[in-house]
Design brief:
By secondary structure, the protein is α+β, with helices and mostly antiparallel strands. The chain is built from eight helices and nine strands. Strands 1-2-3-5-4 form a five-stranded antiparallel beta sheet. The longest helix is centred in the C-terminal third of the chain and has 21 residues. The radius of gyration is 18 Å and the shape is globular.
Length: 249
């Protein structure tokens, strides 16, 4: 039987298809594909093999193993697996810096302006109640601080890290990588899975300011709700972004 084409994710900006053991990533922003290839070449953690790369399209080999869950779903894996993920993230953050800024490297001024604009739209469009937005905007304030740049993934969702048992076999989706705030990666990975944060940080090691992690949970969720709603996703599903915001009330 011929391999079927599986649509992994698709919206107006990009799409990922799977055919057998090959993933095809198509991105309207050619520069994002170029960044992904560069970041995977520099990253000190396992990444998918690049089969070929042409303008706007990237072909990658499938990874061995499974993820530790997804946003809105039940987290899986042992404590050791979560610790292994934390150790891999630490390894990335301690690597030599890439030459460019990533999504996690936006300036405090730019980020605050973007967040305030989004908060106004969320209320004006009736997507979220004002008190929920105001409370989480207050929580998000802790993310606006000085930080030491690290090599960050920039979109380190739990579904982007594969493990086989307690071994990290690969990290995918590097198009937002670059210099940035390392706590953004930790917050993104643990978003919606606060109960596993202790295991993740045990593997990561060192001191981590939990107030800043919680601030990034609020900030990322506030910035995501409208975009997700307008691109066919459901941030109101159980355990997803809106529930993350409600948990800070």
């Amino acid at each position: 039987m011929d391999d079927e084409v599986e649509v992994v994710v698709a919206h107006s900006e990009r799409a990922t298809l799977r055919v057998g053991d090959v993933y095809l990533k198509v991105d309207a922003d050619r520069a994002r594909v170029d960044v992904e290839v560069q970041a995977m070449a520099l990253a000190p953690v396992p990444t998918p093999d690049v089969l070929w790369h042409k303008p706007s399209v990237l072909a990658l080999a499938a990874l061995r193993g499974t993820t530790l869950g997804r946003l809105g779903g039940t987290s899986t894996g042992t404590s050791a697996a979560w610790m292994a993920a934390g150790a891999a993230i630490r390894q990335l953050h301690e690597a030599p810096l890439p030459s460019w800024n990533g999504r996690a490297g936006r300036s405090v001024v730019t980020l605050a302006e973007e967040l305030d604009r989004e908060c106004r739209l969320l209320v004006a469009k009736g997507l979220l109640p004002a008190e929920l937005v105001i409370r989480n905007r207050q929580v998000a304030e802790a993310a606006f601080r000085d930080w030491t740049p690290a090599f960050t993934h920039g979109d380190l969702q739990i579904a982007h890290v594969f493990l086989d048992g307690d071994e990290v076999t690969g990290v995918i989706d590097w198009s937002e990588a670059g210099q940035g705030d390392p706590l953004y990666d930790l917050a993104t990975f643990s978003l919606g899975h606060e109960e596993r944060l202790g295991d993740l940080l045990a593997g990561y090691g060192g001191h981590v300011d939990l107030e800043v992690v919680r601030a990034w949970w609020a900030l990322r969720s506030l910035l995501a709700v409208r975009w997700l709603s307008e691109h066919g996703f459901d941030p109101f599903a159980p355990g997803c972004e809106v529930d993350v915001l409600k948990s800070r009330m």
